[in-house]
Write a structure and sequence with these properties.
Elements (H helix, E strand, L loop, with lengths): L8 H8 L8 E4 L2 E4 H4 L2 H5 L8 E5 L5 H12 L12 H4 L14 H6 L6 E4 L9 H4 L3 E6 L2 H14 L9 H10 L7 H11 L5 E5 H6 L1 H11 L6 H10 L2 H5 L36 H15 L11
Parallel strand pairs: 3-4, 3-5, 5-6
Antiparallel strand pairs: 1-2
Length: 309
């Protein structure tokens, strides 16, 4: 609108943060999503990307921000300054996110961006707007082993004051196992993209592989995106996207989000980034119970998950 105040992403969140609260979840086609997403579902489902857009899909806390930074650096030939032009959520919009005004939705942010855009989603495959598949958009999926993923999601739910109340750790485990968290079942999520990866030309990555050999996985992403960068640039990107460097990068560590929304006294957004941290959280009894349930839920697929590297 003429004369309407134009706020930066950071200013919009600052202005809205005082009225933030833990959003309840509502089912969308059987998947629990926060109410702002559920109430705007028609607009999300109708979204039509450009064929050149890149979709990064993950279950929450599975290496999303890491992958966003890798791709942005690949597309800018390893130029760190270019990738500090704005915070991650403004550079790589979150497709389905809708928050209270004046925070822009992911779809609103994309209206002001020229393709190719790097788009983030946590939606399970069956809820991804069909135009992504119709337009044959390149899609990169990152999966993280269930135990570490759950630990990271738990700490995130504790510190993110817009997520449903997580409750105590011992009660969070069965909620995760039953798929009662925002964005639903981890099991269905990772399997859904895995089983469709060849048909839909999805580059399927594992968080543990990225930690074990980041250069190899960065090169896989580069080739999938039909890019060709020098060995020197690849080395720079691997360094710039290390956990230690990203944790100190204000454009990648979500320090742009006010304390009223992300309470960093509870947990930083980028906490440990490790493989195997689950051992510091699960009791032997919890681990045994979880493993038995995991075997039942994952028996129909042969997926190479590792809980240690």
């Amino acid at each position: 609108m003429p004369g309407e105040e134009k706020l930066s992403y950071h200013e919009a969140i600052e202005r809205a943060s005082s009225s933030m609260y833990r959003f309840p979840v509502l089912p969308v086609r059987g998947i629990p999503l926060t109410n702002h997403i559920a109430n705007n579902w028609d607009a999300i489902w109708a979204f039509r990307p450009d064929p050149s857009d890149i979709l990064i899909a993950t279950y929450p806390k599975a290496g999303t921000t890491w992958t966003q930074e890798i791709i942005d650096l690949l597309r800018h030939n390893g130029d760190a300054d270019a990738c500090k032009r704005a915070p991650t959520p403004a550079r790589s919009p979150f497709l389905e996110i809708f928050s209270p005004p004046p925070i822009p939705s992911g779809i609103d942010l994309m209206k002001d961006m020229d393709p190719p855009r790097i788009i983030k989603t946590h939606l399970p495959l069956q809820l991804v707007p069909p135009a992504f598949w119709e337009n044959k958009c390149k899609t990169i999926y990152v999966a993280r082993n269930a135990k570490d993923n759950m630990v990271s999601y738990y700490h995130f739910d504790c510190m993110n004051k817009t997520q449903p109340e997580p409750g105590p750790w011992e009660g969070y485990i069965p909620k995760f196992m039953r798929g009662e968290l925002s964005w639903g079942s981890w099991y269905d999520h990772v399997k859904g993209y895995w089983m469709e990866r060849e048909k839909r030309n999805i580059l399927y990555l594992f968080y543990e592989d990225m930690k074990e050999n980041p250069r190899r996985e960065v090169e896989r992403i580069m080739k999938y995106l039909d890019l060709s960068l020098s060995d020197e640039v690849i080395s720079r990107i691997v360094e710039l996207t290390s956990f230690e460097i990203m944790k100190e990068n204000p454009m990648a560590n979500y320090s742009c989000i006010p304390e009223l929304v992300f309470d960093k006294s509870i947990s930083p957004f980028m906490r440990k980034g490790q493989v195997g941290d689950w051992r510091n959280h699960f009791t032997p009894e919890q681990s045994k119970m979880f493993d038995e349930d995991y075997e039942k839920k994952m028996k129909d697929v042969n997926m190479p998950f590792r809980t240690l590297i």
